[in-house]
Each structure stands twice: as structure tokens, then as C-alpha cells.
Amino acid sequence: MPTIHEELNRRQLLYSLLMPVMNLYVPGLDKGKGLYFLFIKAETKTPGGLLARPVLTSYYKSDHFKSRPYDPFNVYTSPNETILCPDSIQSMYAQMLCGLIMREEVLRVGAVFASGLLKAIRFLQVNWKQFAHDIETGTLNPKVTDPSVRECMSKILKPNPELAAFITKECSEENWECIITRIWPNTKYLDVIVTGAMAQYIPTLEYYSGGLPMACTMYASSECYFGLNLKPMCKPSEVSYTIMPNMAYFEFLPHDDSSGLVDLADLEVGKEYELIVTTYAGLCRYRVGDILRVTGFHNAAPQFRFIRRKNVLLSIDFDKTDESELQQAIENASVLLKEFNTSVVEYTSYADTKQIPGHYVIYWELFVKDAANGPTDEVLSQCCFQMEESLNVVYRQCRVADSIGPLEIRVVKNGTFEELMDYAISRGASINQYKVPRCVSFTPIMELLDSRVVSKHFSPALPHWTPERRR
């Protein structure tokens, strides 16, 4: 996406508004620090010689971030050197270690997306013994080789046997429920995006945090930064963003009809629109691909709820299943798992057309609190059926007409989706902006998923469908 230097000034202005808004709802944020897991990605160049890098890397490497003035409301536990380390593993290690050392000062914990915060928790699960050793001895793991990171950590890391013993006690237990508030007891909220596809992570974050509020503060993309959530402590399902009209020129394409573009000032509450932007950096009437619903107004400025990304589909025949429908179907099916203290940690899907008829394949990674009382094969088959019952009428019609086969759930080993993320990052994805793809078709990814399958389950019956009578 094209950008220009002055765009950083505009984005910095939006960042500068985040904490003043948050401070209206959460007092005392100037009395501590934020534990944020932030990363950069290596830069490349286009064939024409232009610098190419993720938007967040551009911001973190700019003077706007590196030379930002001191703000007591916006102090991080992570030194700039750890964030700017190009090795994401060394960066994660150093940032988590800083967070553990300053655990009493942490007032908020976050990452760009919910998936990034969960990856950090998983990293702690795997490496806590080494963290405890480093803290006890005051020496940094030799696997962290970046000179600037080692230098800055030498000023922070001192022998602390008492803290090391505490980390060992908390992390050696099998039960990691409320681990965030156990280790960082003064945490007031999680700062993560949990709208859209990220809503899938809400139950897992609630488990690890003990139900801490989740603040979705800002709405942005690589193309343009859009606006703010002026009520950041609301429930994730109620998040609405107020678009800042000075960030770009905004137009909207009504999603339910073929009428022309609508200006920002002419939107109607309750209607859904596709977002169109013309940016200062050169994009002209660019279709971002986000579907938004107008929820109200702040003064005269319309407010929006993010509904879904457009055209994320599964399709076998005439059916078309988008991301929000798939998400809702999985949520409905997950209800059957509650009595077994089991939840869906992560999922993706693909349309299997190798056989006739083709069928939907849904990969589930499950979190089972009590392995001795996990869901049975019959229950998981009923989950398949419940998903089909939750899908749209065209899908169910095609199933009854036998043009689509029974929906299949493939349960994968724990940690599979972390491996999927690591694979994507090894191929160049940004650790900051990585999102689990909700539909996959890339052969190596499907091979990775299939190699981790522990059980397969199919819908045992046809979903309900009756033809509508014509008048």
C-alpha cells in the first residue's frame, strides 16, 4: 500500500488520542506501565526499488515512535531495542522477560490482535523455566544474541531469586486459568482487537485473564487508519468505532442494494455499507473490503460496528458461506461442548471438492479442561449437525438435494494453529498482523493441518429445510 511521510503525522495524531479516551474510563493509568507485545518485520524492496514493509513496522521504525516524548500514560515495559529486534523469537523472549521483571508495574496487557497475545501466553508456557533461571541468576539466555537487546537487558535484569520462585510456582501448575492476573495482578484490562474474526479468541482470553475487560481501542488497516472506539470498556459485541474524517476521504457503498456511493454525512443508522477510501497517499476510491453497520452518531459523526470482511466464502454448489455465518455456526455448535468443559480454541476451514458431492471441512483445535470427561464422538458428530442447522437456507437446500455432502469436523492436536502461525511467519507474514485464515486452500497449510488430525466426525443427518411456498 502506498504511503507518504506526512501520513505518519496523521496516524500519530490518532495514537495520541487513545490514552486520553481510555483515561476517561480507567483512572490511574499514569501510575504504571503497559505490557505490549509489539514486533517488526524485515524490510524488502519492490522491483522498482521502493521500500516495502508492514505498516506497523514503518511506524515502529519511525522517529514518531522511537523519539516519542515521554508520556506517563503510555509507558511500555518493553524497551525500544526489544521491539525493534528483527528476530521475532528473541524479541518475544526479551519482551516477556521485561514484563515478568516489572510485573507489579503492569496495568494493562496487550498486542495488536488477540491471536498475538495468546501466542505470547503460549510462549510463556513453553519457556517459563528459562525465564525463571534468567531472573534467579541475573543472566540473559545466550540464545538472545542481538547486541542491542543484550545491552538494554543488562540494565534491567538483576538477580531476583524471590521472583524466580514465584514464576516457578505459578507456571509449574497445570491449571493456567487466570494466569494473566496471577502473574500481573494489577492488570486493569486487555488491549486487543477481538472484533470480527478475532471474536473467536474471547473465551480463551477470558480463561487466561479471569474475565478482564477487553478494550478494542482503534480501527485501522494497512490502507488507512480510520477511527476510535470512544467507549473502549464496552463489551466486545457492542464495539462501535467513530471514524475520524481527517484521516482520509470516506465513501460508502450500500451493501444491500446497487445504489451509488454515499458520503459520510448521509449514512443511515442500521444499514450496512462497504467502506471506500481515498487516501492522502494516493489510493483512489479503494474498496477496503470491510462491511460496516451504522450504529449511531457521536455528535454528527456516524459510528460503525465492524461486521465482517467481504467475500470470505466457502462454496460447493450454489451455497455461499461468509465469515460471519461460519463464526456463528461454530459458536452455536460450541454450546454442546460446555457440559464437557471444552471450548474451541481455534478453527479454519476449506471446501473439499475432491469427492462428489463436495463438503465443508472444519478444523477444530479444542481446549479440554478435564481429559477424562472430554466430548465423545457422538457429541462431536452432533456439533457437525448443529453447524449445518446454523448455516444459511441455500446451504441446507443443497444438502437436502444431495449436492453437498455431510459437514466434517477434523479435531487437530493442541498447538497445531501455533505451528500454522509459525509457518506463516517463516514465509514472511508479520507477527503483528497475522490472523488465522478462516478458509484455506494453500496445499502446504492443508498438509500441515491434516498431519495433526486426531479424529474426524461427520454430520449424522440432513439439516432442516422445506421449500418456501410461492404466493
Sheet having the most strands: 8 strands, antiparallel
Strand order of the largest sheet: 7-8-9-14-13-12-10-11
Strand content: 15-25%
Helical content stands at 25-40%
**How many structurally independent domains?**
3
Tally of DSSP helical segments? 15
Gyration radius, rounded: 23 Å
Q: Using the alpha-carbon principal axes, give the shape.
A: globular
Q: Structural class of the secondary structure composition?
A: alpha+beta
Q: Uncertain runs with pLDDT below 50, 5 residues or more?
A: none
Could you tell me the mean pLDDT? 91
Distance between the termini: 51 Å
What is the number of beta strands?
18
List keywords for this structure.
471 residues; alpha+beta; 22% strand; 3 domains
Describe, in plain words, how this protein is organized in 3D.
- One of its GO terms (cellular component) is cytoplasm.
- Keywords: Ligase.
- The chain folds into 3 domains: 32-187, no CATH class; 238-309, no CATH class; 323-458.
- It has helices at residues 5-23, 55-60, 63-66, 80-83, 88-101, 114-137, 147-154, 161-171, 179-183, 202-209, 323-334, 377-390, 393-400, 416-426, 443-451, and strands at 33-37, 44-45, 51-52, 106-113, 189-193, 214-215, 218-220, 225-228, 241-243, 249-254, 262-263, 272-278, 286-298, 301-309, 342-352, 359-368, 408-412, 453-458.
- 33% of the residues lie in helices and 22% in strands.
- It has an 8-stranded antiparallel sheet, covered by helices on one side.
- It has 471 residues and is an alpha+beta fold.
- The model has no long low-confidence stretch (mean pLDDT 91).
